[in-house]
Amino acid sequence: MKKYILSLALVTALTAVSALAARPHMGGGFTGPGAESATVADALKMRDDTPVTLRGTIEKRLGGEHYLFKDATGTITVEIDDDKWNGQNVTPDTPIEISGEIDKDWTSLKVDVDVVRLIPGN
To answer: Rounded CA gap, 26 and 48, in Å?
Structure first.
């Protein structure tokens, strides 16, 4: 009887796990108040690992996944992994919003970008 109950519990658990794994990702997420957009000048004063959202343009590629991001207050180095572009094409004239976190060490500061969004209407 114990083997039967154990087998039934195992089958039930495996069925539940496979049902969850088979569900397609539906997307979505939080929409509402959160981290306010900052300027490059603000970001340059922030501590390591501080979440930040910036609006501006990519001025140029510095090499690899590093770019020079610019807004009206200055420029900052950003690191955008290839998978973060999500198929979006951006030129120096394309206004974008980037979200990520400050990556600061002894001699440098950059933004490690998690999300790149085109600013609608531009």
So the answer is: 33
